[in-house]
Each structure stands twice: as C-alpha cells, then as structure tokens.
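Please review the protein record below. Tell me whether the encoded fold seems credible here:
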Amino acid sequence: MIRRAFLALAALTALTGLTSQALTAGIGEDGLHKQDWFALTFRDVAEDIEAARDEGKRLVMVFEQRGCIYCAKMHEDLLSDPEVSDFIKANFKVVQYNMFGDEEVTDLDGDVLTEKTAARKWGYVFTPTLVFLPEDVPEGMTVAEAAVATMPGAFGKWTFLNMFKWVAEKGYEGDEHFQKYHARIINELRAAGRLEAE
C-alpha cells in the first residue's frame, strides 16, 4: 500500500513538473515570450529587410519587455490563434526586440546601437509595439522614418490581423486609411457571421 502511494506521488510530481515546464517553455532567458517561428537575426535592419524580401515576405519588428502583460496577451491570445499566426508566418518575417535589451542593432542609417538605445532613438515607448518596414531598404533613413505602419499596444484579434493584412496589401500606398479598411473588413465579417468579440 505504501509502495503504491509512493509511486502515485512520484507520478504526480513528474506530471506536475512536466506541466510546469510546458507552461514556461514559451519564455526565453530574457523574460520575453517566444514563438518558435520568430526569426533570429543579427538585428541589422537593412539585412533583415532584404532577407524577408528574398523569402517573399515583409519585415516586422516587435518590441517587448519582461513582465509585459500586454505582450503575454499578444502571444497567448493572438499569436496562438492559427488564423492569425498562419497569415503572419506566410507573409512576414518577425524579429523580436527587447525594449530594455543590450543586443546590438544596426539602424538603416548605419548607426550601431543597443536595443534599448534604438527604441529610444526611434521613439518607441509602449510594449508591444509592432513596426512594419518597407519591401526595399530606404537610403539614409532611420527605422522610425522608414516604417510604413506602427502598431503600439495590444488589440483584439481583428484589429491585429487586419493591420498585418493592410500592410501585406500595401494599403498605406492607397487612399483607404487603416481605420476605414478595418471597418470595412469588420462589416464583411459581420455579414458573413464570422465576427468574434474584440
């Protein structure tokens, strides 16, 4: 009887350890949530734009910080949704930046900075902040100047996904502002009976 109780306790301990490990597997040593499909690069933004283009994709940079509840929401609620993640993976190369990190970054204008000094230079103060870059490397501009769109903060599924779609469709080159585009898509989803609560 004691032996059975011991084996049951050992099995429960192993299961609890496994569950705990699975829950923390998505957090890196820097304390940021991770997606296994995020790109690991040298953070040379011009090279990353070119690499994304060579893959038929666009570059998006995402700024996060340790302990950010909105970053956790983005990873747990949005990036875990196959409709969202599949579209992003197919169309974008995502590179993660630590808002207060010390990794080296090379700006489009050639400045070599740390992640935290780059965030300060570019004026990014919220996490998460997603920065969408053009298809071609602009000359003599900073990342902030070259960005075709910036999304500060965490939003609901459709706002989040529609921003990626608007950029992929180059909506920033046309006359339909993102908010108008988003409203149109929401109306189409509502008409199709697909609208989920934001």
In short: Residues 28-155 form a domain with the Glutaredoxin fold (CATH 3.40.30.10). The longest strand covers residues 58-64. The beta strands are 58-64, 92-98, 104-106, 112-114, 129-132, 149-152.
